[in-house]
Model the fold of this input.
Amino acid sequence: MKFTKICFQVLAILILLAIIKLNPAEARSLEIYAVEINAAVLPNGDLKVTEHRTINFHGQFKGADQKIYFNEINTFSEIIVREGAQYYTLVDQFPTIDPGTYSIRVFGEDYFMIDWSFDALDEQRTFTLEYIARDAVVVHNDVAELYYKFIGDEWEFSSGLAKVILKLPPGAEEGEVLVWGHGPGHGEVVIESPEAVSFFVAPLPAGTYLEGRVVFPNRLVPDAERTSGADALPSILREEKQWAAQANLSRFANKYQPWLSLLLIVPVGLILFFLWRRSANRGEVFRGDYYRELPGEYPPEVAGFLWHRKRIKNSFLSAGILDLARRKLLQIDVVQFAADHKKLKEDDFRLVELNNDLPRKPIDQLVLDFLFGKICDHYCEEAEKTNNDRKKEITFSQIQDFAKSRAREFQKFHHSWKQAVLKESAKQKFFEKNSSLGWGCLPILVLMVGAILVIVWWNLFILGAALFLAALIIFFGSPKLYYTKYGADQLAKWNAFRKFLLHFSKLDQSTVPSLIVWEHYLVYAVVLGVAKQVIDQLALVFPRMEQEPTFRETSWSAFDAAQTVIILNNMNRLTSSLNRTMDGAARTASATIAEASSTSSTRSSGGFSSGGGFGGGFSGGGGGGFGGGGGSFR
Done:
């Protein structure tokens, strides 16, 4: 069945191709084989133009039209359409219908259009358009100037060859005629003699103009009536010199742009290396494999701020609560799950307030006030609130429930806690004040501007894309933070300390600290993301943890378990449950507020350059010449 289906599909495609082949009207195309223009400057300043367009038709075509702009030339006359010696007949109907006829229509003060009809089928035809552009030459005080767009940029078809031969009145001496061509960079302009110049482009891409600018002595057009009354040669030379410089640079870059793109790798690599060196502050930093003690005497939240590069994560809050338990500011108990107790959840833990006078930091007090103030006021029994001798207690599940029922209060605390972490971290001066790309943005901006220039001005798309890509690599590949010497050293030590936490069970046992120290280490392991690995290794180093001398001094003794495996299991449950609780509570509060805001909102809303007259390539400038336009076929 599948094979039969494929056969039918292939047969349908073959039939479709046959239909297209048999019906050329449905599959037609054309190519402009060549455009040859003969133009002559007349003594009165007019320009006589004869355009020959050779077209290869594939399929059937019935007619064509061509648009010519007036600009500052007010009059075009003696307009003729022919094929060889066969002249077309001028008619009033526009557009024309009968083959061998043409018509002209003026569209305001902007342009006029010539339309002609023919009958072409799979053949080559050459159409000739003749006209005179009145007062095309402007006479300045020092020189005469012809600035004319022979082929406009509105043609939708490319031309295999575009050639213009321009004749000047006799009488000029060698060196008195200056010529420039504007258009694609591969064009050429040649001064054949003081009486003839030529412009040549092969191919001429679609949507691209061919423009000529010629300066010659005033005496060649004695009868010209269009004058400027000013000197013009110095400004013309300056303008063309600038365009020629751009064209030369464009040609050079276009020729070598693949190599130039590859060479970008070197400076981009050097910039990235410099930024990396600056960000990491590679100086007198710790370089050992392991660091066996805490790098700094600051809270775990601050260590996390450094380790996670200025990001504050909810796991920092979990580590802070574990640190409060370690320092005997609160106690963590395992809640025995009871199936008939609807308020308790499996794997739940209880936080118990310890009323003592032990020292505490502002961030400690902020967390304690929230846990045993705000949350306890919502869930604790009245006796717990009023009896100062009775310890206040809350469970992890109550923290999550509070984040949902009192979302804005939780979010307010969460914001205040983040601000406290920022304040404590700022005291350590881990990062430079301007800890962003800073001057590192300069090469990115230079590359971005360069990419725009080479694409817009010189059409160097490969080089422009390479410059743009290099800017993106520097932006995304370079560090966004810059450390102080102290910050870089501390970061290196935390890296080494984290490596020690991952491998301590394989190291010399004589160097392994006591359990009370490991309790301290575990707090920081939470922010470093290796708490589970540390707990799993403790079973190897302390197989009978409950018999260790310092075990009763740790907060883990509150688990009241007689076997190491149960103690470690409770520790794993605790750290993972605490992380889930804090992360889940923060997400729940944000989601609840967002949902409430959404609901409230819903309710309330109901070329080429001659190089000074000696011939050469086109420049990419210009575009100011008269004439131009484009055409189409039907």
Notes: The chain is about 40% helix and 20% strand. The longest strand covers residues 29-41. Residues 18-26, 338-345, 601-621 have pLDDT under 50 and may be disordered. Residues 564-605 form the longest helix (42 residues).
